[in-house]
Amino acid sequence: MATKTKKASPGAKPLYKPSASLFPWLGLAAIIVLLDQVTKLTVERTFAYAETLPITSFFNLIKVYNPGAAFSFLGDASGWQRWLFLGIALGAVGFCLYMIKKNASQRLFCFALALIMAGAIGNGIDRVVHGHVIDFLDFYWRGIGHFPAFNIADIGISVGAALFVLDELRRVNKS
Fold it and tell me: Active-site residue 135, yes or no?
């Protein structure tokens, strides 16, 4: 039995570009997730809860848990927020994968999405395994106070979001 193959119309765009691949972005995300999980595991095993190790006059390592989202949003809820934030993380990962696959040749855009995706995965793993996110980077300024503690996944999300905005601004300025 012979199978028929569809021929693309002369002006049709291919569904994907052979030169652009999803794999470099997945590799970048995997490296960030690995770094995030290794650092969290190290802190989890070497620090007692709320133990602080001063590093500089403006930076400590500290072991704290965040059952909420950024800045402990919904951190004092009864536990349902764990599943809400996990669902949001899974949705973000799915959306990032879709957008990276669709736009794999746009380097800055995909770099930003890979960082966001890695952060969502890293913190999502914490929510599944521990029921909360492990934070350990504590920056502060004497007389002003401490910035909320964060982790490598949070850095990925923040830097990715900033690069996403930068990429969009570049696109707007080109047109």
Answer: yes
